[in-house]
Design a protein that fits this description.
The complex is a heterotrimer of chains A (about 250), B (about 280) and C (about 220). Chain A contains 9 helices and 10 strands. Chain A has a 6-stranded mixed beta sheet, with helices on both faces. Chain A has a 4-stranded antiparallel beta sheet with strand order 2-1-4-5, with helices on one face. The longest helix of chain A is centred in the last third of the chain and has 16 residues. Chain A is globular, with a radius of gyration of 18 Å. Chain B is mainly α and about 280 residues long. Chain B has 2 domains: about 40 residues; about 210 residues, MetI-like fold. Chain B is about 75% helix and about 0% strand. In chain B, helix 3 runs antiparallel to helix 4, helix 7 runs antiparallel to helix 8 and helix 9 runs antiparallel to helix 10. Chain B is flat. Chain B starts with 6 loop residues before the first helix and ends with a helix. Chain C is mainly α. Classes of the chains: A alpha/beta (about 250), B mainly alpha (about 280), C mainly alpha (about 220). At the B-C interface, helix 1, helix 2, helix 4, helix 5 and helix 8 of B face helix 2, helix 3, helix 5, helix 6 and helix 7 of C.
């Protein structure tokens, strides 16, 4: 990656408060094309909030968020259009419970991208194939296991051809035996060159898949490093304590 | 109504500057529109002379309120008595519906569906027109209270049943395994827990009974509505008296519903309470 | 009177009464549903005064006794120079009261939707109205089938208010007092009306649970 290339996502001095609580403190961050950035940190450190500011599911009090060098719009059609270019995967899957999986997949491509229904369906089936839940296409979300739902949710986001994928703790709501299947899909996605920003507690995944690890604590970015360096030799005291507390469990 | 953030606010995201401005403009228009509506109503009162003191001065009198209060007391008495009877009947029907015996169960189901499917007014006319024909002499109070109670008992039975069903199975299994009889298990373990779930809907049912008692004028029972009629003929003030009386009903029912919502919220917010007791 | 005597003498009237009750029920329900939707839109819109108005409307008509509302419409409104025929007064009352409950049911239908699904719709780039149309309304409607069934039955019971004014044709409650003031119709006159009411309620309930089973959303 070259130095003068425009980053896909750039955050400049982001601040956010929830009432008296200063949840994001002057955060600056760049994510380049093809990069996989993993954000870790204790719960309540603001990492989820940070992830959600990028498509304005959370508003910010000050600072700037740029997508490919352009500030993200604040409202209206432009905001919707921006969001359609950013894929998002939630902790609780958030598949539409009244629709079958295939309808979940085609809703936004047809309604937002104005794709012909047939084309959208064909592509959706290919994506479901890719994440391994094609045989569940006609079922409604409640009939699927958590792992299957999350894989379908990833496929739903991919159907919009996003420039970047945001993952907000994608495995935190899953039973242990299902975490692996979701992480596998994400690993594959990373090796295909997708730009990804991932908030997670899965340290092994971070270590092996991330290009860069960001450690957040109480609203600030405390440390940024490549995963090997971070996990084997954290520079800050807070990161050391955090990593120790995790390995102990 | 509850303190948990409602979906009402989730539907919208934090507005951007343009949206904020639009909201401000539309809000202003809405206020003007509502004000205009109010103005039309007030104007109608004004041009028809309904603001004239002769329609309102007697509300400044203590005796007026005492008289209305007496009527209200009868209304509340009928509503509470009716609700208690409805609760007892409903309890019997609920027990009947949960019996193994097919005949008892079938009869209970039929009675529940019957009382739920027939309007209160029909029961009132039954007590007003048919019961006297049988020679059974009832006071006006009972002629309104009994039909309201009967009309409500099916709904109460269903509410109680859903409460009983909401008690986790483990509770009765635990009691039975301790050697309690089925009956004791029901009265000592299941029902005390069930009743807490259904208190909100029982209060809501009280509101329905209270509303039904307004038909007391049919049997000339001196409730709030009937006393209002007396006031009207004394002062020749139809509109003002009926408006005030309607507001009294609305206020009481509103407060009862509020109480019911509050209790329901507390039950929802404190799931730990469910397994307690 | 025996049932056969009643039916031979008043059979046609009962049939007409049943049809009248049904007609009044359907008309009231449709009106209540339309107003209920409008009021619900006001209650969830971001304009505070309209929200407050919607809440106010619901509290008034949810809490006013039917008799009180009908009496206001029939006897008090003429003092404001607003005079409706009896039939209209009945219809207004039997629309306004269920409309408040309709809005309450729709609100709780909306409340069953998880906020996460709204966020997902946003994140996919759906506009506000696309989200309302594709996510909110289908889910709210599908989860309010049973409440709406109950509302339809409740509306039918509310139409008995018509017996309190000289409305023609008579409906199922009115006909009972009509027969009983004319001749001692006795218990049977009631039983016929009650059975017709009940049968209607059972049919409505059955149809409702059938539809509900078809469209219910698994969670």
């Amino acid at each position: 990656m070259t130095q003068n290339e425009v980053p896909i996502i750039e955050l400049k001095n982001i601040n956010k408060h929830f009432g008296d609580l200063h949840v994001l403190k002057d955060i600056s961050l760049k994510v380049n094309k093809g990069e996989v950035v993993v954000i870790i940190g204790p719960s309540g450190s603001g990492k989820s909030t940070l992830c959600r500011t990028i498509n304005r599911l959370e508003t910010i009090d000050s600072g700037q968020i740029l997508l490919e060098g352009v500030p993200i719009p604040e409202e209206g059609r432009q905001l919707a259009e921006l969001r359609s270019k950013i894929g998002m995967v939630f902790q609780a899957f958030n598949l539409f419970s009244h629709m079958t999986i295939i309808d979940n997949m085609t809703l936004a491509p047809v309604d937002v991208l104005k794709m012909p229904r047939r084309e959208a369906r064909e592509e959706a089936m290919k994506l479901l194939e890719r994440v391994g839940v094609a045989d569940q296409a006609k079922k409604v979300p409640a009939q699927l296991s958590g792992g299957q739902q999350q894989r379908a949710a990833i496929a739903r986001a991919l159907a919009m051809h996003p420039k970047v994928m945001l993952f907000d703790e994608p495995t935190s709501a899953l039973d242990p035996e299902m975490i692996g299947e979701v992480l596998n899909v994400m690993t594959e996605l990373a090796s295909d060159g997708m730009t990804m920003l991932i908030v997670t507690h899965e340290m092994n995944f971070a270590r092996h898949v991330a290009d860069r690890v960001i450690f957040m604590d109480s609203g600030s970015i405390v440390e940024q490093a490549d995963p090997e360096a971070f996990f084997s030799n954290p520079q800050t005291e807070r990161a050391k304590i955090f990593l120790e507390s995790i390995t102990r469990n | 109504m509850s303190k948990t953030p409602s979906i009402r606010d989730m539907l919208y995201e934090e507005p951007g500057p343009k949206t904020k401005k639009q909201i401000r403009v539309i809000t202003l228009f809405a206020i003007l529109l509502l004000a205009a509506l109010l103005a039309v109503v007030i104007r109608q009162f004004y041009i028809t002379g309904q603001f004239a003191p002769r329609y309102w001065y007697f509300f400044g009198r203590w005796t007026t309120w005492r008289f209305l209060g007496q009527g209200l007391l009868v209304t509340l008495e009928a509503a509470v008595t009716g609700s208690i009877i409805a609760f007892l009947l409903g309890f019997v029907l609920m027990r009947g519906k949960l019996q193994k015996n097919k005949i008892i169960r079938g009869a209970s189901v039929c009675l529940i569906e019957f009382t739920r499917g027939v309007p209160t007014l029909l029961f009132i006319y039954f007590f007003f027109l048919v019961v006297p024909q049988t020679g059974w002499k009832l006071s006006a109070f009972w002629k309104i209270t009994l039909p309201c109670a009967i009309s409500a008992c099916g709904v109460v039975a269903e509410a109680l049943r859903s409460g009983v069903n909401a008690v986790p199975k483990g509770q009765s299994e635990a009691a039975l395994s301790l050697g309690l009889t089925k009956t004791r298990t029901f009265y000592k373990v299941v029902f005390p827990q069930a009743i807490r779930f259904v208190i909100p809907s029982l209060i809501a049912e009280l509101v329905i009974v209270l509303k039904d008692t307004t038909f007391a004028y049919i049997v000339t029972c001196a409730d709030l509505m009937q006393n209002a009629k007396v006031l009207i003929s004394n002062y020749d003030a139809m509109l003002s008296v009926y408006l005030v009386v309607a507001l009294i009903y609305i206020l009481i029912n509103y407060l009862l519903n509020k109480l019911s919502d509050r209790l329901a919220d507390r039950l929802k917010q404190n799931p730990a309470e469910r397994s307690a007791a | 009177m025996t049932i056969s005597a009643l039916l031979s003498q008043y059979g046609d009237r009962y049939l007409l009464a049943l049809v009248t009750t049904w007609k009044l029920t359907v008309l009231s329900f449709l009106g209540a549903f339309a107003i209920g939707i409008i009021i619900t839109v006001l209650r969830v819109c971001p304009i505070k005064p309209l929200r407050a108005f919607g809440d106010f409307y619901v509290q008034i008509f949810r809490n006013i006794p039917g008799a009180a509302l009908l009496i206001l419409l029939v006897y008090a409104l003429p003092y404001l120079n607003i005079v409706f025929p009896y039939n209209t007064c009945v219809l207004i009352a039997t629309i306004l009261i269920p409309s408040a409950f309709c809005s309450e049911h729709l609100m709780s239908g909306i409340n069953t939707i998880s906020p996460g699904q709204i966020e997902a719709a946003r994140a996919l780039g759906l506009s506000f109205f696309q989200m309302i149309r594709r996510v909110i309304i289908p889910q709210a409607l599908r989860s309010s089938v049973l409440p709406m069934t109950n509302l339809l039955v409740a509306t039918m019971l509310t139409t008995s208010l018509a017996s309190q004014v000289p409305m023609r044709p008579l409906e199922l409650t009115g006909i009972v007092s009509y027969i009983n003031t004319r001749a001692a119709g006795g218990v049977m006159a009631f039983v016929i009306s009650a059975v017709l009411y009940c049968a209607s309620a059972v049919i409505i309930g059955f149809a409702g649970s059938l539809i509900d089973r078809k469209v219910r959303i698994q969670r």
